[in-house]
Design brief:
The protein is mainly beta and about 180 residues long. Helices cover about 10% and strands about 40% of the residues. The chain has two helices and 14 strands, in the order ββββββαββββαββββ. The strands form three sheets. Strands 1, 2, 5, 6, 8, 11 and 12 form a seven-stranded mixed beta sheet that branches. Strands 4-14-13-9-10 form a five-stranded mixed beta sheet, with no helix packed on it. A two-stranded parallel ribbon has the order 3-7. The longest helix is centred in the C-terminal third of the chain and has 13 residues, at about 125-135.
């Protein structure tokens, strides 16, 4: 595991299709990175960050950044391991809150180089979390230290060497720099 959060053997997330069905993806434990991480990505490829909440099955919630190389996203028949599962491609903030604190929507923002480039609220997070857990639990066991990623917004292209921060009111944030 990367030098970062020590929680989460399994990291599961989902992309929802037009019909609202979750298409699951997994990230290896080595994808975890801590706040302030320097993320290394292959040169010449676009780096994209998806603002997320990382919800442990044990109940804690932290801000996270799901890093993806969209040019390597596969077709339907190939899993997105090369695009999403690289070492350090999941910075997760410290601190956090309890899952019970997600009862009402709170604001989130993504800032690149100090300028806010995206934001919204966590309005449907609990519904999406429930659906991801339901789908994943239908064929695998999720344990207390496993993490469920819930996207807060769409992917945002990131310029290399610029600091990126995903912040969520009442939960905290995570910062990383891409190289």
């Amino acid at each position: 595991m990367s030098a970062g959060p020590q929680a989460g053997r399994t990291v599961v997330g989902a992309v929802f299709d037009a019909a609202g069905r979750p298409a699951l993806f997994l990230k290896p434990p080595s994808a975890l990175a801590g706040d302030g991480a320097d993320i290394s990505a292959p040169s010449g490829l676009v780096v994209e960050v998806v603002p997320c909440l990382a919800v442990s099955m044990g109940g804690s919630v932290r801000a996270a950044a799901d890093i993806t190389l969209p040019e390597l996203l596969p077709t339907l028949y190939r899993p997105p391991v090369r695009a999403k599962g690289r070492d350090g491609f999941l910075p997760v903030g410290g601190g956090g809150a309890s899952r019970q604190d997600l009862g009402s929507p709170v604001r989130w923002v993504v800032a690149i180089g100090g300028a806010v480039v995206a934001g919204g609220d966590t309005g449907r997070v609990l519904e999406y979390h429930r659906r991801i857990v339901e789908e994943a639990s239908s064929f695998m066991t999720l344990e207390d230290d496993d993490l469920v990623l819930v996207a807060l917004g769409p992917g945002i292209p990131v310029e290399r060497s610029r600091p990126v921060r995903v912040g969520v009111d009442g939960i905290g944030g995570v910062t990383f720099t891409g190289s």
